[in-house]
Specification:
Oligomer: single chain
Number of helices: 5
CATH topology: Protein Transport Mog1p, Chain A
Number of domains: 1
CATH architecture: 3-Layer(aba) Sandwich
Largest sheet: 7 strands, antiparallel
Distance between the termini: 50 Å
Order of helices and strands: HEEEHHEEHEEEEHE
Shape: globular
Length: 197
């Protein structure tokens, strides 16, 4: 009887799907932990953004400038359980342009104007623009959190940025307005897992 119980228990344990989190190591030199069921693609920043049809939504000159400022590789993260058109995340690395510790609320209208200019054919509104602390690799770190309209109707973008080693790490994600809590938490979890290789 004990053998039967052991065999049944072993079968249940081994037949239960295990969704282990994956550690992703970027060619840019950092690692992040992906949430369960998430996949990542890493490409050169040029291929990552040029592979999408951006001509109708982004100012091409500003996009080119952003690509020039970015480190070589960018990542695209999707959840197999969600539609990647509405739920996705990107990670980009750019040279540090300002000190997040010096952040002032007066900067928010400038950020909003920049994004509004970059995204053509739609007025971009900001809903969150603030500095907050997150534990990144168990160290309290100042992070800039932004929440704003996405070029697509009914979609929002969340963005977390922080400085490390003279670069800005930018983690952004898009989601349907009624499904953003999970994306926001996943972004925070990914940011919190960040470390240099």
């Amino acid at each position: 009887m004990k053998k039967i119980i052991f065999v049944l228990l072993a079968f249940v344990i081994y037949s239960t799907p295990v969704f282990a989190k994956k550690i992703f190591k970027s060619k840019n030199g950092y690692s992040i932990t992906l949430p369960k069921s998430h996949d990542v693609i890493e490409k050169t920043v040029t291929k990552l953004f040029k592979g999408k049809d951006t001509t109708q939504t982004l100012d091409q000159n500003m996009l080119e400038e952003s690509i020039k400022l970015s480190k070589k590789y960018g990542t695209w993260i999707t959840d197999r359980a969600e539609n990647p058109l509405f739920y996705n995340m990107t990670v980009t690395v750019v040279d540090a342009l300002f000190n997040i510790g010096d952040f002032n609320k007066d900067w928010c209208p400038e950020f909003e104007a920049y994004y509004d200019q970059m995204i053509v054919n739609k007025k971009i509104n900001f809903y969150v623009c603030k500095k907050q602390n997150l534990k990144i690799n168990n160290i309290d770190t100042e992070v800039l959190k932004l929440k704003y309209d996405n070029p697509r109707p009914g979609i929002l973008t969340y963005q977390y940025s922080f400085e490390t080693k003279n670069v800005h790490m930018n983690f952004a994600g898009s989601c349907k307005k009624n499904k953003c809590n999970a994306l926001d938490q996943n972004l925070k979890d990914i940011v919190s897992s960040f470390s240099w290789n």
